[in-house]
Amino acid sequence: MTGERAQRGVAAAAGEHGGVPADVSRLRVRTVEILPGEVILIDQLALPHAERYVHCGNWQEVAARITDMTVRGAPAIGVTAAGGLALAAAAAAVASPADPAAFRAALEQAASGLLATRPTAVNLRWAVDEMRLVWTACAEPPAACAELLLARAQAILQDDIARCLRIGAHGSALFKAGDTILTHCNAGALATAGYGTALGVVRAASARHGGISVLVDETRPWLQGARLTAWELGVEGIPYRLISDNMAGHFIQRGAVDGVVVGADRIAANGDTANKIGTYTVSVLAKEHGVPFYVAAPLSTVDLTVSSGAGIPIEERAEAEVTAFHGCQVAPDGARAYHPAFDVTPAANITAFVTEAGVLRAPFARSLATACAGGKCES
Ligand code: MRU
Fold first, then answer.
1. For the whole model, what pTM was predicted?
2. Is the minimum distance from the CB of 192 to ligand 1 under 6 angstroms?
3. Which residue's alpha carbon is at the smallest distance from atom 6 of ligand 1?
4. Is the CB of 85 under 6 A from ligand 1?
5. Quick check: do 3-165 and 167-372 share a fold?
6. What confidence tens digit (pLDDT) does each residue in 37-76 have?
7. Mutate to test the pocket of ligand 1, among 32, 165, 186 (most ligand atoms within 8 A of CB)
8. In this predicted model, what pLDDT tens digit does every residue of 225-276 receive, in sequence order?
9. 209 CA to middle of ligand 1, Å?
């Protein structure tokens, strides 16, 4: 960690977040920072072995870091893309100080590049659309519009933390002291601008009731659970045990799980939900054994333009991410693999959505539409 970054980490630990609940001020790291001229990302490829930060000075670098998963997690990707557009705006204002049409064309080009990085998380499109509202409405010279876009990106970041806090507050009421929560992938502070969605519920439940413990699916093939969720919970001092993905059924069958909480990359209008590959399997196990299965997500993850899960694009990633891990080949030479990065959990397997607007119950087409009223979701 750089000296500057270490200072920032200490400041955050000391309560730099000011005015938010104490358990948030304990967060040691910032996933994304959006500053004039740079976007700073914690390097999620290096965790848990090293805590280091990547500085991006232009939107192309931001896009590359989303693609290679230096930053990942649906809300974090959206916030980071907003930061990338703020960088694009600053550069375009310098290149075309008196040409608003060229300024806007440069932003559209950056938006296309950022949108092409990862297809499943709709928060990316949501954030780009939020930023586009600013540049299309701005009648000022490009430099002034660029300032507005930087401010909007920073506001999107703060807003994401605020949403996660509300998700945590609503979700904590679903659990009691001593409960064990199973989670899949990483839907924590690292997957958002801070605090997390599924792990926001865990954090808030732990702060509210005490005695909460977590079963963490390792989450093959990227091991977001083993590398990131376990790291976050360790930092927070919340007890957890790591399990390989194929152990989830064993523990659920034995009554060791009081509830499952996962995040989401895209929620269709009917409640079908895309999340990290393996989530569907856990939902089937939970349903079979009568264990509540909660999806915690901000409304920016809801895509009302998609009527069901069949319409959600599923990202296909490289086969080598399955046949090898961190450069170490685990399969025979020439082995072929499949690598869908997400799967779709049918709405029927979901007990409730935990959103910043409250806990939404079935029928989800109605409860999601009501929560989304007034343009709060992608539509
Ligand atoms: O491929 P990733 O690591 O970006 O996938 C992340 C997930 O599937 C998360 O569960 C989801 O984005 C919710 S994050 C709050």
1. 0.93
2. yes
3. 73
4. no
5. no
6. 999 999 999 999 999 999 999 999 999 999 999 999 999 9
7. 186
8. 999 999 999 999 999 999 999 999 999 999 999 999 999 999 999 999 999 9
9. 26
Q: How large is the greatest C-alpha to C-alpha distance in the chain, in angstroms?
A: 68
Atom 10 of ligand 1, residue of closest alpha carbon: 263
Q: Residue ranges of the domains in the chain?
A: 3-165, 167-372
The highest-level CATH class for domain 167-372 is alpha beta
What does 117-161 look like in DSSP terms, one character per residue? S-SS-HHHHHHHHHHHHHHHH--S-HHHHHHHHHHHHHHHHHHHH
Tokens of 181: 């929560």
Residue 264 CA, ligand 1 centroid: distance in Å: 7
CB of 319 closer than 8 Å to CB of 337: yes
Q: How close are the terminal C-alpha atoms of the chain, in Å?
A: 41
Active-site residue flag, 265: yes
In order of 101, 111, 133, 144, 212, the CA distances from 141 in angstroms are 11, 20, 16, 6, 53
Distance CA 36, CA 52 (A): 20
Closest CA to 261 of 206, 221, 223, 216: 216
Q: Give the closest residue to 320 by CA, choosing from 304, 333, 311, 308.
A: 333
Q: Is the CB of 185 under 6 A from ligand 1?
A: yes
- Whether 75 lines ligand 1, by a CB cut-off of 6 Å, is yes
The domain at 3-165 falls in which architecture? Up-down Bundle (1.20)
Q: In 3-state terms, what secondary structure has residue 64?
A: helix
Name the active-site residue from 265, 272, 303, 343.
Answer: 265
